[in-house]
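Page 42, continued from yesterday. The earlier attempt failed because a stray header line got pasted into the input along with the sequence. Redoing it now with the clean sequence only.
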Amino acid sequence: MLAHADAADGSPDEALRRLDHPAVRLTLTWHTPVAASVAVAAAATELARGRAEQAGRLLGAAGALRGWDDPGDADALVIAQRATDALGAAGFASARAAGAAMSRAEAEALVSATITVPGAHRTGHLK
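This time it went through. C-alpha cells are written below.
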C-alpha cells in the first residue's frame, strides 16, 4: 500500500490523502479477515468435538471468506495438523478443498450454521 511507503518516508499527510478515499472507507465495512477468523475458530470447535472433516471444510471456507489461504495463521496451522492426523493427508486435503471451493455465500452459511447454538433465543442468549 502506498500509504505505508509515504508514512515510512516521513510524509504522513500524503499517506492520509491516499487513505481518505471512498473505496478505502468501503473496504473497512467488508470484515473479510474477521469472517475468516470466525471460520478458523469454528474449525477449532469442530475439531474439539471430534469432527475433523468439518474442521477441514471450515478451514477451506476461511480461505474462501478471506479470498486466500493464510499460511501464517498459527491457529489454522495447528488445526490443520490435528485434522490431518485424524483424517490422513488425503482426507484432510479433500475436506479442505470442499470448503475452499465454496462461494462466499456458501462459506458464510457453513460458518453460520456451525456457530449457531441450538436452543438459543434470537437475541443470542441461551435458554
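Notes: Confidence is low (pLDDT under 50) at residues 120-127.
Reminder to self: strip header lines before submitting.
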